[in-house]
Design goal:
Shape: globular
Structural class: mainly alpha
Helix content: over 70%
Number of domains: 1
Number of helices: 9
Strand content: under 5%
Order of helices and strands: HHHHHHHHH
């Protein structure tokens, strides 16, 4: 029988450090969001927020600003790694996925840099309301918003599938029982958040009310205001912290060619 060729590419010398630094930065951002939401759930103050909002809370003291500088470098590294993957991959669907992730982390890099420069950062919820209002005003705007909501739910379901089946381990060189556990919990938490974002986007389109749409901070606020809100928010917050910890494990074991 003819042997199956190993189609994995060989990364450039600079690509692996970019990937690992970027994954650590990604993990830190999720731990920050989860920790802030956990504080709200426990009744010790603060507010639920997006990753941009969590970055803004770091500003104002020397330690926080040092962390922000490191996160700017980490987010930029993550974006460059994803761009490198897009350039080198032959499948256009994967290329689009890589470029989409690169765009998200380029935006986070820009947001963190603006905060460092003292330009501030607004609520993701408010930005979501403005964007949704603009899109609803377009021809076919309702359908576009519904499609975006369905896409968010699809991303959530993909995270649920990856978590429950532990598909994320397929990209690891090695194994970590603790890493697998936080990976499962973290992916399930991401499913909850993306599903809420998608559901409320669809509701905004159906009701023709942009204020129904939510970002990450808004999704966490919806949990906080639901029945048993503190419990639901606390569980989701713990899950987001777990996802951040999973990113640290991913940075250790990830095969960056995949």
């Amino acid at each position: 029988m003819e042997a199956i060729a190993d189609v994995r590419r060989t990364p450039a010398d600079w690509e692996e450090p970019l990937a690992r630094v970027g994954l650590v930065a990604k993990g830190v951002s999720y731990v920050l969001v989860g920790a802030l939401a956990a504080g709200v759930a426990a009744g010790v103050g603060g507010s639920t927020t997006s990753r941009q909002g969590a970055l803004h809370q770091l500003a104002g003291n020397l330690f926080g600003e040092v962390v922000l500088v490191l996160l700017v470098a980490g987010f930029a590294a993550y974006a460059l790694w994803r761009i490198a993957q897009a350039v080198q991959d032959d499948e256009w669907t994967k290329r689009l996925g890589y470029l989409g992730r690169a765009a998200i982390y380029a935006s986070l890099t820009f947001s963190a840099a603006k905060i460092l420069a003292g330009a501030g950062g607004g609520s993701q919820n408010a930005k979501t309301h403005r964007t949704t209002a603009v899109v609803l005003g377009w021809p076919g705007g309702r359908e576009i918003v519904i499609a975006g909501g369905l896409a968010a739910i699809g991303v959530g379901l993909w995270n649920l599938y990856r978590g429950v089946t532990r598909k994320f381990e397929d990209k690891w060189r090695g194994h970590s029982d603790a890493g697998s556990a936080v990976g499962v919990v973290g992916h399930v938490a991401r499913f909850v958040v993306f599903a809420l974002i998608g559901i409320f986007a669809i509701r905004a389109a159906v009701d023709y009310d942009a204020k129904q749409a939510v970002g990450l901070d808004g999704a966490l606020q919806k949990l906080a205001h639901a029945s048993y809100g503190s419990v639901l928010l606390g569980l989701t917050a713990a899950g987001l912290v777990a996802y951040g910890l999973y990113c640290f494990v991913d940075a250790r074991y990830r095969d960056v060619t995949r």
